[in-house]
Amino acid sequence: MSRHDFPGRDLGTTVTIGWDRPLATFFVHVFLVEIEVELIWRGTYPGELPTAAAAIAIAAQHADLPATLGAELETDRLRTLAEADGPAQQACKPFLGPARPGIDTEEEAREAGYTEAVIADSVMHTLELLIAPGTDLDGTFAAFDRDACEMLEVHGWNFRIEAESQE
Fold first, then answer.
1. What is the pairing mode between strands 150-155 and 126-131?
2. In the 3-class helix/strand/coil scheme, how is 22-70 assigned residue by residue?
3. Is the pTM of this model over 0.70?
4. 59: closest CA among 41, 77, 44?
5. For residues 122 and 107, is the Cβ–Cβ distance under 8 A?
6. What distance, in Å, lies between the first and last C-alpha atoms of the chain?
7. Shortest CA distance to 66 belongs to which of 2, 19, 6?
8. What DSSP state is assigned to residue 124?
9. Which of 49, 84, 134, 150 is most buried when burial is the number of CB atoms within 10 A of its CB?
10. In angstroms, rounded to a whole number, what is the distance separating the alpha carbons of residues 160 and 154?
């Protein structure tokens, strides 16, 4: 794993970018230090950000990055090619689940087949989602969160799910 930290453009933010070999993804973390809040945390699923350029595109919105960062990140990735997972990593991988598709906008979600708008409601959360037609709502399924603009894995049995009204 590699890690490069930069001061964010916004007061009190830090931006961390790096390579995570066990997940085979680059990652970006934007953190508001004073109140300990994550603003962005991408690269948490296997292969989510497969290229240094994908991670830099996100991080560059929040920090001034050196021109050499792409080469540094790619070098970090290449240094890990011969490494193997340790026992703890091997034990954890079956629980990671499949990689989420890299979908960041409602338009991309609809193009990927997430076209059915639903409201998922529980005691703690109400989510406005796009799901694939025919999704088994009683199981675990992928959905696009229209408010957070990110893909989620939803445990349907935790929610009351209804079609969004078309008013």
1. unpaired
2. CCCEEEEEEEECCCCEEEEEECCCCCCCCCHHHHHHHHCCCCCCCCCHH
3. no
4. 41
5. no
6. 49
7. 6
8. S
9. 49
10. 12
Parallel, antiparallel or unpaired: strands 37-42 and 13-20: unpaired
Radius of gyration of the chain (CA): 18
In the block, tokens 């920090």 appear at 63
Q: 103 in helix, strand or coil? A: coil
Instruction: Give per-residue pLDDT as tens, 107-136.
Output: 988 988 899 999 999 877 899 999 999 999
pLDDT digit of tens for each residue in the chain (167 aa)?
899 999 999 888 999 999 999 888 999 999 888 877 778 888 888 888 889 999 999 999 999 999 999 999 999 999 998 888 889 888 887 777 665 567 888 998 898 889 999 999 987 789 999 999 999 998 888 899 998 888 888 888 889 999 987 65
Amino acid occupying residue 159: F
